[in-house]
Each structure stands twice: as C-alpha cells, then as structure tokens.
Design brief:
The protein is an alpha+beta fold. The chain has 21 helices and 28 strands. It folds into four domains: about 190 residues, Sandwich (Jelly Rolls), CATH 2.60.120; about 190 residues, no CATH class; about 220 residues, no CATH class; about 60 residues. A hairpin with a 2-residue loop joins strand 5 and strand 6.
Length: about 800
C-alpha cells in the first residue's frame, strides 16, 4: 500500500486540471488612454524616440533585490523605472478597457473571483535593456499575479519568457499599432526574464493583480470520477494503516502532495490557491471527507547540510543560472547564496524534514506545531530529487572544519492522514509537538464546560494514551527539560481529570523521575487513590534516595502537605523509612537502571524538609533515628553550613518550634555558637600576621618572614610575571592578611604587598553573625528547652 498511496494518488491528482494556465497573453484593440508622466508631460503613442529619451532622463535605474539589499547592477537588470505616483492615465474609455483586459487575464489564469489591477511601475526598456530570470513576490496583500501591458512603440526584441515546472513560453509583446495593446499575465511565483531589446524603446505598464472579496479562487470543473477514485484509495490506505506497522514496510502515517505553485506564508490558504492547485483542493476536500481522512494545507521544508568543495565562479550575460527572488524593493534572492559561485557537493551531514504552518480547509489554523516527515510520505517520494533549492549558502573551511553547503527546499503541500490515525501521527512527532497540543485541548475542554464524554475530552484522552505509550525512556530523564515535560503532562491530565492516564503516567514515572516534578505530582495525585500514589512514591524513593536524598525529602514533604494523604499519612511511612535508612547508612539502594547522576551533597534544605516531612506523617521513631544520625555526624551535617540554617528555618514554623528533634538540634547549634562567641577576639597590636603559606619556595619563604615581622607593613617583590603570579596565588590560597597591587614602574614590574586586618574583620563579622543567630534561636525557644539559657557576650570585642 505504501507505493500505491503515494504514486496512485499523484497519478489521479495530475488528471485534475481546471481551465486556465500559469500564464495568459493576447492583443486587444483599444482606444489609447492619455498618458502623462510628471517631469515629462503628455506621452504620444506609439512612443517617439525623442520622448523615449525624455522618459529615460526622468527615470531611475531599476534595482533588484538580493538578500536584504536593493542593488543596481546592469549585468543583472538593465532597464529604467518610474513610480506609479508619477504616472497619470486618463480617458473616457480607459477604465472599461483596463477592466476588460484584467478580465481576460484572470480568465486565462483560471481565476473567476473578482480581481483588481494596481498600477505598480512604468518600465522603459531602451536598446540593450534586459532583466535576467527572477521571480516576483507579493507586493500587496492579496497579490497573486503580475500583468504586463506593452504600450505601442517602434521596437524589436525584448521577448518575455515565462517558465513554470518544466514548461516555457516566449511572448513577443512588441507592436507599433496605436490602436492595439499587447498584454501578458503570469502567476507571481513563475520564473521569468526579459530578453534584450535590440532596437528602439519599449514602454511597459506593470500592474499587480489582486484578489478581492476574501481572495476566493476560481471554481474548477466537476470531477466526480476522480473524487470517487481518490476516496476509495484513501479508504484502503486508512484500513491498511490500522492493520500494518510502518516499520515493517506498511502504509505511511501521512501523505504529502506538493503543490504546483509557490505560495508565501501570507498567501497560504485554500481560498487563495492557483488554477490546478485550486482544482485539486476542491476534489481532495470532498474525497477526504468521504474517506474519513483529515486534509490540511501546509509548508514543507527540507534543510540540508552537506560537505562541499569550491570549484570556481562564473559570470556571463544575465547569469542565467541565478534566480533573483524579487524584481524590485530588495527581497530575498531565491538561492540565497548571492555570489554566483559553483560548488561540488559531497555527502549529506545533516538533514531536517518538517511540515509547518498548517491550514484547515475552512481557513482556521489548528494548534499543530512543526511535524517531521519521511521522504516515503511524499507523493511521489522522489518529488524533491530534481528541484533547485530555494536557498543555499556556502561556508568556507575553518580550522578543523571542512567547507559545507547549507541548502533549503520549501514547497506548499496538501497533507492527509486517516482520521483514526490522527493521534499516532501527532505522537510520532514527539513531545515538543504533543504537549502544547494536549494543553490546548485541555484548556478548550475546560472552557467548554462539557463532560468527559465530549469529543474534545475524548480526543485529549486518546492523544495522552499515545504519548504515554511512546514516552522517552530513562536516557531522556537526565535532559534539562525532562521535568518540564512531565510537569506539563501532569497539569494537562489533572485539568482533564483523566485518572486513567494519570495512573498510566505513575506507572512509568519512577523510571523517568528527574526531581523537578514534585509539586505538580503532588497536585495531580489528589485525583488518585492514596494507596496507589504511595506505591509510586515508594518506588521513586527506593531508586533515588541514594543519589538525591534532598529531592526525595522534598517529594515526601509535598505529598504529606498537598497530596492525597490527609487522612492516611501512615501510607507514606514505608517510603520515609527507606529514605531515613538510606541517609543513616542502614540501607543501600541500587539506583534505577541507566541512572548516572552524581550523589548530591547534604544541605540545610534536606534537613529542614526531612524533619518537616517526618512531623507531617507523624513518624516519631524515624524522627529519633534521623536526629541521632545528624547529631553524631558533624562532617556531612556541618553545624555552620547545614544545621544552623536548617534550625533557623524550622524554628520560624510554629508547628515545628516545640518538636523535640528541633529543640535538640537548636541546643547543639547554640552550644556551638556560644563557644565561638566566647573566644577571645582582639585586633592585631602590631604588623605581625599569621603565616599560613603552604609553599616553601624562596619567594614564598621570604613572604612568610615578612608576614611574621611585627615591624614591617609593606614589602615589594620585583620579579617577572610568572613569579608575581605564583606569589599572588599562594596569598589567595592561604587567605593571608595582605592587599596586593602591581606597580608597572620600571622593568620587571613590582608586586606590592600591604598588610591588612582581614582575619580580624572576618572574625568580627563572624561574631556579629553568631550573635544574631543566637538571638533568633533564643527568641524562638523562650517557651521551653535549653534555648532559654544565656546568650554570652554581646559585642565582638
């Protein structure tokens, strides 16, 4: 079915042709209008050479766009232009004449909806003038084509050549009959060029053709036979997609049919499609609905990086192999390289295939982000093989990196998939697509006020099932945004009150737990039975208590404070026991499979969360075990770095201040602080300073003698940069009471070391901090316990 759906669908669609083509041209008899040009005056038609010269003198060189620049280069474009605001057309018959020409042009393009013509420029091609091949881009909202009116003149050459998808037409718009005007029109995405004018002057009015009244495209003929064939093909594809596995060579999940014409992002809409594309759309919309398939309009993009080698630069008339993307106003060039160089392309290094910018047939935009696609989903699969890239950029070799070529292919396309496979298609794109889509579904369902049997809820539930089935494994849990993904999923499922999907998420959560999910998990867990949540939490703690005990304590704290355990905190006792026994060394837990995270250090937050959690689940035996371990192991549970800040935080909580464990830790902290407060602290009486240098080299030994000298305040070391840098490093490492500065007077420079009172100032600051901490602890403990004893000295001296 894989080849049948991609090839057969392309074959059927290729037979759907509406009236009209990518271009139209003709000659029509008219009464010539009055043409006045500011700075020149009334122009006689056919154009006289003397007035042709006057128009050229009044005109500007016509530029072209390359990247963000607007350039004038007569090797690319040699012609003259006069802006529309300087051109005045009048005459009794002219409005009706122009309306008739526009109608002929629209009919030739297959557009039957209302169209207006907006005057853009007057171009004057003198002898030798030309414009290399290029594409026009949208210059006004709703613009879809360009109309060229060649005014009568005695000239030759200047043929207009229009190319599109392998077809080419050469149009001769010359003529000197004053009663006849030649016109040509073509879709704006068509490549076209103007060949050199060989004699005389060729005046040309350029109009932008713009759709009005909603930009509705022409109505194609009826294709009942093609519609039935496509619907039958899509039905078989949908049946096979459910019965087979794509990985085993089955049907593709989606089909992508590139359109014939190019469209800007602003013009991408079913109602703005051009002739054959509009005809195909009208058939596909009905056939997809009949076969229960979903149809979208989207932009297909292929971005490649390949190894490359520069092989030269060529420049001849017109640079015929260049595609400039805009004939005016500085738009991007098509290939994007902007330099006409030639390269030999090697192996593909990277390749990214995506579909984005989705549109429904009704004009709405679904909440679907970029989706990846496979080449075998293209219809036909080899569609991009012979296409020229829209952009390409050559990067020369730098350092160890070889030269590379980056190129991008873009094309509007129809995208189809069986409605029953919608969730599989979205889920296969990854969580960066499905998580925002699920959030949107959950929010829309909640706003609707519907029940859980509503279509929106059922769609969200089905998508969640696919997401959980395909959720990344343990290797993804170490990524920076792993917890964000789980949190987003938890919040959406809680919003949907989807207990079945929440239970399924809990089944896989122990294996992908990152630590940042605690708050969202506790909130969502309220929707589930407490025993089921306790089972999941227990598994998480068992696999993570060894490396991340602080995060595990935080999880248990969230669970006992905002989870589903209000009436049954004892359900958390097994998980809390595992955590406490792991912390005290009574239990060694193996990390979960594939876990590679380094153990985290003990922090004050761990101690605070641990004892708050133990109080919350009413586990006195575990509380006593944890307290004894903390007080008996001052190395990991450092008094200054861990216990003092933890006790200060716990003492500020009314529910914790009278806990026996908190009182005992506070007593230990106060004893430690009071002892240090009672130590002698005096400023230095002379210039003798402690020598804590560890290096015994000659320069550091001399510096040590200087530190111990009570008479010397300053010393100068005149030495090279390496020696000065070494001595400064020694001073910083030993935290010596020295200020250092470099004097750049003379050679070599000098390192000036001046003694200070940094040690004393640190001690004084430490005493002030200790006094403040003692005062806070004593204030919190005035209602009982040893914290009510004296505070010791009240000043740092």
């Amino acid at each position: 079915m894989q080849n049948e759906i991609t090839r057969k669908l392309a074959e059927i669609i290729s037979t759907i042709r509406c009236h009209g083509d990518f271009y139209a041209s003709g000659r029509t008899a008219i009464i010539m209008p009055n043409l006045d040009v500011d700075g020149v005056g009334r122009i006689a038609l056919p154009l006289l050479d003397v007035q042709g010269d006057a128009l050229v003198r009044a005109a500007d060189r016509a530029p072209y766009g390359r990247g963000e620049d607007t350039l004038v280069d007569t090797a690319v474009r040699r012609t003259w232009q006069i802006d529309a605001d300087r051109i005045h057309l009048s005459g009794h018959d002219w409005p009706r004449t122009l309306e008739r020409i526009v109608a002929q042009a629209a009919d030739g393009l297959g557009v039957t909806a209302p169209v207006t013509a907006q005057l853009y420029k007057l171009l004057i091609y003198d002898t030798g003038s030309f414009f290399v091949e290029h594409r026009d881009t949208e210059k006004a909202p709703g613009m879809f084509a360009t109309l060229v009116l060649a005014l009568p003149s005695a000239s030759s050459g200047g043929e207009l050549v229009v190319r599109h998808r392998g077809r080419e037409v050469c149009l001769d718009l010359g003529g000197s009959d004053s009663a006849v005007v030649s016109f040509a029109t073509f879709y704006a995405d068509c490549v076209h060029e103007v060949r050199p004018v060989t004699s005389g002057f060729r005046p040309v009015l350029i109009y932008n053709l713009v759709r009005t009244k909603g930009r509705q495209a022409s109505a194609p003929p009826v294709y009942d036979k093609e519609q039935s064939a496509i619907a039958a093909l899509l039905r078989r594809w949908g049946d096979d997609a459910q019965a087979q596995d794509v990985a085993d060579g089955g049907a593709p999940k989606k089909v992508i049919y590139p359109l014939e014409h190019a469209y800007t992002q602003a013009e991408l809409a079913f109602g703005a499609l051009k002739n054959a594309d509009a005809a195909a759309a009208s058939v596909l919309v009905r056939a997809a609905a009949e076969a229960d398939c979903e149809l979208y309009l989207a932009l297909v993009s292929i971005e490649e990086m390949a190894s490359a080698e520069y092989i030269g630069y060529g420049r001849d008339y017109g640079r015929r192999h260049r595609d400039w993307d805009e004939d005016e106003e500085g738009e991007d060039d098509d290939d994007g390289d902007g330099d006409g160089e030639d390269y030999e392309v090697g192996d593909i290094i990277e390749r990214d295939l995506t579909v984005s910018d989705w549109r429904h047939p009704d004009g709405s935009r679904p909440a679907i982000h970029s989706l990846p696609f496979q080449e075998d989903e293209l219809c036909p699969p080899e569609y991009f093989d012979d296409l020229e890239p829209d952009e390409q950029h050559f990067h020369e070799a730098t350092g160890n990196a070889g030269a590379t070529l980056e190129r991008t292919y873009r094309q509007a396309a129809f995208v189809l998939w069986p409605r029953a496979q919608r969730m599989d298609v979205l889920s296969s794109a990854g969580l960066h697509v499905t998580l925002p889509y699920l959030r949107d579904l959950a929010a829309r369902w909640e706003r609707s006020g519907a029940d859980q049997g509503a279509p929106l809820w059922c769609e969200a539930h089905a998508l969640a099932a696919c997401m959980l089935r395909d959720w990344p494994g343990v290797e993804d849990s170490f990524a920076a945004n792993s917890a964000d993904k789980v949190n987003s999923m938890l919040k959406s499922l809680a919003q949907l009150r989807d207990t079945e999907s929440l239970d399924a998420l809990l089944s896989i959560l122990p294996g992908i737990y990152n630590g940042g999910e605690n708050k969202a998990l506790a909130g969502a867990a309220r929707l589930l039975p407490a025993a089921r949540v306790a089972e999941c939490v227990g598994q998480i703690i068992a696999w993570n208590a060894q490396p991340i005990p602080g995060i595990c304590a935080d999880l248990l704290l969230h669970m006992c404070s905002s989870g589903p355990f209000g009436d049954s905190p004892e359900l958390l006792h097994p998980a809390a026991t595992v955590l406490v026994q792991t912390l005290t060394g009574q239990r060694t837990n193996p990390a979960r499979p594939g876990y590679s995270r380094r153990p985290e250090p003990v922090t004050s937050g761990l101690v605070e969360d641990l004892f708050r959690m133990l109080a919350g689940i009413d586990a006195p035996a575990l509380d006593a075990l944890a307290l004894a371990h903390v007080l008996q192991h001052p190395v990991p549970y450092d008094l200054d770095a861990v216990l003092v800040p933890a006790v200060l935080a716990l003492s500020e909580r009314a529910s914790m201040v009278q806990m026996a464990s908190v009182q005992r830790m506070r007593a230990a902290c106060l004893t430690h602080l009071r002892k240090r407060i009672g130590e002698s602290l005096q400023p230095p009486k002379d210039f003798a300073r402690a020598n804590s240098l560890r290096c015994a080299c000659r320069d550091c030994a001399e510096l040590g003698r200087f530190l111990e000298d009570p008479q010397r305040e300053r010393c100068v070391l005149k030495a090279g940069q390496a020696v000065r840098g070494h001595v400064e490093d020694s001073i910083r490492t030993a935290a010596c009471d020295l200020d250092c500065e470099t004097s750049q007077v003379g050679r070599p420079y000098s390192l000036i070391c001046t003694k200070n009172q940094a040690s004393y100032q640190r001690g004084a600051q430490q005493r002030m901090d200790d006094l403040r901490k003692c005062a806070r602890m004593e204030a919190d403990g005035t209602n009982g316990g040893p914290a009510g004893e004296g505070a010791g000295p009240s000043n740092p001296d």
